[in-house]
TrEMBL record:
It holds the Pfam family MS_channel_3rd. Its main location: membrane. Keywords: Cell membrane, Membrane, Transmembrane, Transmembrane helix. PANTHER family: MECHANOSENSITIVE CHANNEL MSCK, POTASSIUM CHANNEL RELATED. The keyword Transmembrane applies. This is Mechanosensitive ion channel. The chain crosses the membrane at residues 17-38, 59-78, 90-109, 137-156, 162-191. It comes from Natronobacillus azotifigens.
Length: 364
């Protein structure tokens, strides 16, 4: 490759322009050829095809960058110092190489986590939270290595950063405490995993699913499809309910009131029948532990029962509760069992006769 570039530099003027044009046309032809070959072999979804095109485009981009570095690397405008820091001369060539290293590392990390990692996760049957943690840690490691290599490429001595780190530490101590706390909390969340991606949690009476755990904040999607941005330190300092922690199974309690005069044993059998019918209709409702009906109280207007059953996923609670309410209403109506509404009976034992006379006067 280097000898080919050296021979190409012998061209002058118009010949050089033609050569460069041919090279770029060849690269573009290679791009379309790779996309055609990969799409023909990959019989995947539309998103997978878009990923193939995205990857090929970046391969072509890096090929062009490498060509520019090799072809113009020794020319005057590429090696002319833009900035001098002490004895270090920073040139356009060094900046291009540094950008190339960091950009390549970023897309290598993205390519690996989207195409290769899922196969490993599927093989070892890792849950979504573990996958997200591995992807984040892998990305951070790749980017830190890339930044160190790019700084070394420019010629900056890494030992000089010890002074900068000391100054930065003082700055963090005074002005960046909140940001640092959130960053450290994000690392703790990724490794300790009190919450993980996919968990159903309750934050400030808001129910939602964890979508992302970023360096500074966590993104939660509520059941109303609202995105809530919560600082990472909140999960280590405040009370958070995690319905999916360790065991995603959760108990659902459905209260029911029936009118006085109803047969309690019949109500119990009907509620258990509702639970078994819902379990037969969906895999979400569990029969182990088995559903239970409790006669909890003699209310002011009703006999109060509670149906206890277990669901396999906390995120299905609302759906299951809705289905149960429909089934309970229809089965009680079918057996002519009334669901009462609050009422009061007033008994007048004695009334002052003057009140009747006043009422009659106003009526006239």
């Amino acid at each position: 490759m280097q000898s080919f570039i050296e021979s190409a530099r012998q061209y002058d003027g118009f010949q050089e322009v033609v050569f460069i044009g041919i090279m770029f046309l060849s690269i573009l032809f290679l791009r379309f050829a790779l996309i055609y070959i990969f799409r023909k072999r990959a019989k995947g979804t539309v998103s997978q095809r878009k990923q193939i095109r995205y990857t090929v485009d970046w391969i072509v981009f890096y090929t062009i960058i490498i060509f520019i570095i090799l072809y113009y690397g020794e020319t005057g405008w590429m090696t002319r110092p833009l900035l001098t820091i002490g004895e270090i001369e920073i040139t356009i060539l060094l900046l291009i190489i540094s950008f190339f290293i960091i950009s390549f590392a970023h897309h290598l990390s993205k390519f690996t986590t989207q195409l290769f990692m899922p196969k490993i996760y599927e093989r070892y049957q890792l849950d979504t939270g573990v996958q997200f943690t591995f992807n984040r840690v892998f990305h951070y490691i790749i980017m830190v290595i890339a930044i160190i290599v790019s700084i070394s490429t420019v010629g900056i001595d890494l030992s000089a950063f010890t002074v900068f780190a000391s100054v930065l530490g003082v700055g963090i101590g005074f002005g960046l405490q909140g940001l640092t706390a959130n960053f450290v909390a994000g690392i703790i969340l990724l490794f300790e995993r009190p919450i993980k991606v996919g968990d159903r949690i309750i934050v400030d009476q808001i129910i939602g699913d964890v979508e992302q755990i970023n360096m500074r904040a966590t993104v939660i999607r509520s059941v109303n499809n609202e995105h809530i941005i919560v600082p990472n330190s909140y999960f280590l300092e405040e009370h958070v309910v995690n319905r999916s922690y360790q065991d995603p199974m959760m108990r659902l309690i459905t209260p029911i009131g029936v009118s006085y005069g109803s047969d309690p044993e019949l109500v119990r059998r009907l509620l258990l029948q509702v639970a078994h019918d819902e379990a037969a209709a969906t895999d979400t409702v569990l029969l182990d532990p088995e559903p239970v009906v409790h006669f909890v109280a003699f209310g002011d207007s009703s006999l109060d029962f509670e149906l206890f059953l277990w669901v396999s996923e906390a995120r299905d609670l609302i759906k299951v509760k809705t289905n149960l309410n429909f089934r309970i209403y229809h089965i009680l109506k079918e057996h002519q069992i009334e669901i009462p509404f609050p009422q009061r009976d007033l008994h007048l034992r004695s009334v002052d006769p003057t009140i009747y006379s006043q009422f009659e006067v106003k009526k006239k």
